[in-house]
Design goal:
Membrane topology: Multi-pass membrane protein
Largest sheet: none
Helix content: 55-70%
Keywords: Cell membrane, Hydrolase, Membrane, Metal-binding, Metalloprotease, Protease, Transmembrane, Transmembrane helix, Zinc
Order of helices and strands: HHHHHHHHHHHH
InterPro entries: Metallopeptidase_M50B (IPR052348), Rip2-like (IPR044537)
Structural class: mainly alpha
GO molecular function: peptidase activity
Distance between the termini: 71 Å
Radius of gyration: 20 Å
Number of helices: 12
Strand content: under 5%
Number of strands: 0
Family: Belongs to the peptidase M50B family.
Length: 266
């Protein structure tokens, strides 16, 4: 009896979503407002950083889906994952709403994650690991791009508002990358190592996967863990040329509703 071949990915399944384009447009306009120093510059920083953060979340999920597509899971096209539309994710709450909320409340890049990959279609442990790694690697690239003006020394003439916003955005990307690479069930880091574990270990760990992110979040409330984590974040950012001064003022501008003193020139 002949077996049915997987459906090819249609052009419409790859077309960039108007939702993503709208988010990108808002980010660009807000970025111009930050650069120009509009009167409501705090609001402009908020919209710019939030918009860019959502764009990075979409690219994170797209990287998972695109890598899965080239590894054998053609179902990601029909699910809409290749359109960069955040509304197509399995859990939009986990992938978009909660990460944005945590940025607003705490200034931390909480990893999301809600593209369903049909792992049974994929052969080879390396491919499974690469699919999981593709998302946080996108955050690494985004962090390097945001920090490029700092480590390249090309900030002369850049308005301080824009500089601080870029620094804070780089911080979000670094925190997301570090958290996502933790080998904790439910996070991408565990997805990287899981294919190399024995079936027995995977079965034992599986029940804890839904609670991995909550456990990490709870640990970050412990002062010693929090200091160690952000010490690592600051060390990485320092290596990229982004100072604590930049990220501090970026966060202050972002949380404009708290009010802020006069922003220093640099």
């Amino acid at each position: 009896m002949p077996t049915s071949s997987p459906s090819p990915v249609r052009a419409a399944d790859r077309r960039i979503s108007p939702v993503f384009l709208a988010i990108t447009a808002v980010t660009a306009v807000a970025g111009w407002g930050v650069w120009a120093g509009v009167p409501a510059v705090g609001l402009a920083v908020f919209l710019f950083v939030t918009g860019a953060w959502v764009v990075s979340l979409c690219l994170h999920e797209y990287a998972h889906a695109r890598t899965a597509l080239h590894s054998g899971d053609v179902s990601v096209g029909a699910k809409g994952y290749l359109t960069l539309n955040p509304l197509k994710y399995t859990h939009a709450l986990l992938s978009i709403v909660l990460p944005v909320l945590f940025v607003i409340l705490g200034g931390i890049g909480l990893p999301g994650g809600a593209v369903f990959i049909e792992r049974s279609r994929i052969r080879g442990r390396w491919r499974h690991s690469l699919i999981s790694a593709a998302g946080p690697l996108t955050n690494v690239v985004f962090a390097v791009v945001c920090a490029a003006p700092f480590w390249l020394g090309t900030l002369d003439g850049v308005p301080p508002y824009f500089r601080y916003a870029l620094g804070f955005l780089a911080l979000l990307q670094v925190t997301a990358a570090i958290l996502n690479f933790l080998p904790v069930p439910g996070l991408d880091g565990y997805g990287v190592v899981e294919p190399w574990l024995s079936r027995k270990v995977r079965r034992q760990v599986e029940p804890f996967a839904p609670y991995g992110l909550l456990a990490v979040f709870a640990l970050l409330w412990i002062p010693e863990v929090n200091r160690a984590f952000f010490g690592l974040v600051d060390a990485v950012l320092g290596g990229l040329g982004v100072s604590e001064w930049d990220t501090y003022w970026g966060r202050r501008l972002y949380q404009f509703w708290l009010g802020t003193d006069e922003v220093p020139a640099g």
